[in-house]
Amino acid sequence: MSKTITAILGTGILTAPLLCALVGLAIGFAFGRSRSHTLSFQNRGEARLSREIRRHFTAPNYHLMNHITLQVQGGTTQVDHILVSRFGVFVIETKDYKGWIFANGKHARWTQVLFKRKFQFQNPISQNYRHVRAVQELLDFLPADCIMSVVVFTGDSQFKTAVPPGVFSLSGGVDHIHQQTAEIMSLNRMQFCIGRLEAARLAITNETDVEHIENLKRKHGMTV
Predict the structure, then answer these.
(1) pTM of the prediction?
(2) How many domains does the chain divide into?
(3) Locate the NERD domain: which residues (predicted)?
(4) Domain that residue 86 falls in
């Protein structure tokens, strides 16, 4: 792209249409790099959910953001996805797990059983509550209940206990969002929300992820 801009500038003629073209090229290049960089930080489950969300929920009524790291008191919190829409703001936590899942919405840890081995992981509802609170603080001009938690299991897992409210399979999560049809905000207000989130998020870098993981270790004594 830099060669293209250099060639244009080399003509010595910078008309208004030409200036608009330059701006468009720069924005397109930056957006392409940003989106590519975001995708490189997503795991398989997050990438799969992103594809499904983009397929089912399109502009101008929906805008998907991925891999959002926000500053919070005591460190950072990392949100897998935020879907901003005229029908609410969906804060989405993705889990790409296989095997059996034993869950209780009130328990701090859930259990995954895979090939007769047991693994514990942080309750994703509680995990996502911290994300929701961070988004609520940023979008404090919206009613708190407009910002909704959605936990999605994208892998080939099977719940062996009752599935807690707010937890879905991939298709179930898509259906749940489709069911939210009450208009909560205008397109202008929606764009304002997107701008506020984009301004607050930290750059997507390896350093950002390392810092976030270190915060988790300090808080939980483990990587979750």
Answers:
(1) 0.76
(2) 2
(3) 41-158
(4) 44-220
